[in-house]
Each structure stands twice: as C-alpha cells, then as structure tokens.
Design brief:
The chain has 13 helices and 9 strands. It is α/β, with parallel strands linked by helices. Helix 2 links the parallel strand 2 and strand 3. About 45% of the residues are buried.
C-alpha cells in the first residue's frame, strides 16, 4: 500500500481511482465539482481534498485525468496546483490526453522541483476504465516509470514506457489517428451492406473472423446498426484529440489526409446534434447520406 492522490473524477478517472482503492492503496481525491468527489468517497472510502495541492501533499504518486492542456496546467502549476506541495521524489502521472509539448513542459517543471513526471494517456474507453482493462502509453524516465508501473496495474491490462516525456502522448495520437480511420471504414462498410440488401449482422459475423476484424467492429457494430450513440467517447473529445494530432503533424511533417477528412465528417456529426454522441456516430452521417441518395 502506498499513499496516492487522484485528480479528476470524470467518466474515466472515477473508476480508475476506485481500482486504486481496491488494490489496497491509500487514496485521496480531488474533483472540481466537490459533490462528485463526495459520492466517490461514499462509494470507495478514502478522502476528499479541497484542492489539487491538498490532495498531493502527502502522496507518493499523484494521478490526474482531466480535460485539456489548460486543465492540466491548472492542477499542476496553478496557485493551488499539485506541484506546489508534492514532496521531492514523488511522481506525477498525467492520464489526460494532452499535447506532447505540455508533457515536456511539465517534465522540466517537475525535475526543477525534484519530482518525477510520466505522461500516461490511456485507451480502452469507459468500459475499459470500469473493468480495469486499459492500455496505458507512457513517456518519461525509466526510474519514474519503474515506480509507477506496479500501481498502474490496478487498472491496466497493458502498460509500456515508449520513450522520454511526450512519447506517451505521441503514441496516443497514433491511437486516435488509427481509430478515426477505422470507425469511418466500418461506417462505410455497414452502410454499404445495407445498400446492397445484405444482413449487416450476418456480414459482420463472417468478416470479423478475418482480416477486417477490429475492436471497433466487435464492440460497436450492434449499437451502430441500432442507431444508439448515447454512450462511449464523445465526438467533441475526439475532435479535441485530433486537433492535437494536427498540431503535432504541423511540427513533424506527417501527412494526415484521411484523418483530416474524418475530422470534417465529425464536424458534420456535431452539426447533426451529435457533439456528445459516441465516435461511432460517423455511421449516422453515413446512413443519412445513403438515405438521401436512395
């Protein structure tokens, strides 16, 4: 058992922090909306802190899972940020999907205070968080990673150090780029099956046993075909992540033509009222186009 803090109890952070309690760790939490932190304490035990600084003051490892780069800066470098009270030798682990530039910035700031820093974005969605089956992509020093890896196992099915600070975020960008293309391809395939008069469920049953198989196909085709999108990873957050990818591509020269096209399709989904729909809602756009041509 070690003392840890968890900052940010959203869709992902709430169950992740719960897994740390179940693994036997002493957990203090902070959430911007205090009532949610109170609910978490009622469910799991532990303690609620009034600020990131208070949550981090006794912790050996501080975890965070918030929204955007500015949110991460606020909970680390802000007036009541965690870096102001963390003890030398403690490690900050950022599970937020943020920019690699921010990860490098925070790594430098942490080193200046005698702290460790790991950027550790996750993949697996809400269900992966609830089931403790997330994939964690890490960047930072080998020493800091070695300290946090055993604790991450509370909610990770796969965890790997991929390089220096920022490498975790860059790997998450690869993940999001791949997902964008996969979901659009699956949307087109399912819509094509309907247009061709096939039974899409039967088609998926066959092709999912071959080279076309993917997590998206296995876990999203049923809800896509039934038009259910009020779950999962929201379109607005995917577009945030893709924006990070485009910013990084502008620096490293990578060509993201298909990803930019899919981001434009997500903009159309938002215009359809799907800002909070799951990313698989690309299928709703695809079906709208098919029906308009029928």
């Amino acid at each position: 058992m070690i003392r840890v803090a968890f900052i940010g109890l959203g869709v992902m952070g709430y169950p992740m922090a719960g897994h740390l309690v179940r693994a036997g760790h002493d957990v203090t939490v902070f959430n911007r909306t205090a009532v949610k932190a109170d609910h978490w304490v009622t469910e799991y035990g532990g303690r609620r802190a009034a600020s990131p600084a208070q949550a981090a003051s006794e912790a050996e490892i501080v975890f965070a899972c918030v929204g955007r780069d500015d949110d991460v800066r606020a909970v680390t470098l802000g007036d009541s940020g965690a870096f102001s009270t963390m003890r030398p030798g403690a490690v900050f682990v950022d599970h937020t999907t943020a920019s690699a530039t921010l990860a490098r910035e925070l790594d430098v700031a942490a080193r200046g205070k005698g702290l460790g820093f790991i950027d550790a974005p996750v993949s697996g969605g809400e269900q992966g968080a609830k089931n403790g089956q997330l994939t964690v992509m890490c960047g930072g020093s080998e020493q800091s990673y070695a300290r946090v890896e055993p604790v991450l196992s509370a909610y990770a099915k796969r965890c790997r150090l991929l390089g220096e600070a920022g490498a975790g975020q860059l790997t998450k960008m690869v993940n999001q780029i791949c997902i964008a293309g996969l979901v659009q391809a699956l949307s087109e395939g399912l819509s094509f099956a309907r247009a061709a008069g096939l039974d899409p469920e039967a088609v998926v049953d066959v092709v999912s046993k071959g080279a076309a198989q993917s997590w998206q196909m296995d876990n999203r085709h049923k809800t896509m075909l039934s038009g259910q999108f009020d779950h999962g990873f929201a379109v607005e957050w995917m577009r945030k992540d893709l924006g990070i990818c485009f910013d990084e591509a502008a620096r490293n020269g990578a060509e993201l033509a298909v990803t930019r096209m899919v981001d434009g399709y997500y903009a159309e989904v938002e215009a359809m009222g799907g800002r909070r729909w799951d990313t698989s809602s690309l299928f709703a756009r695809q079906e709208k186009l098919r029906r308009s041509k029928a």
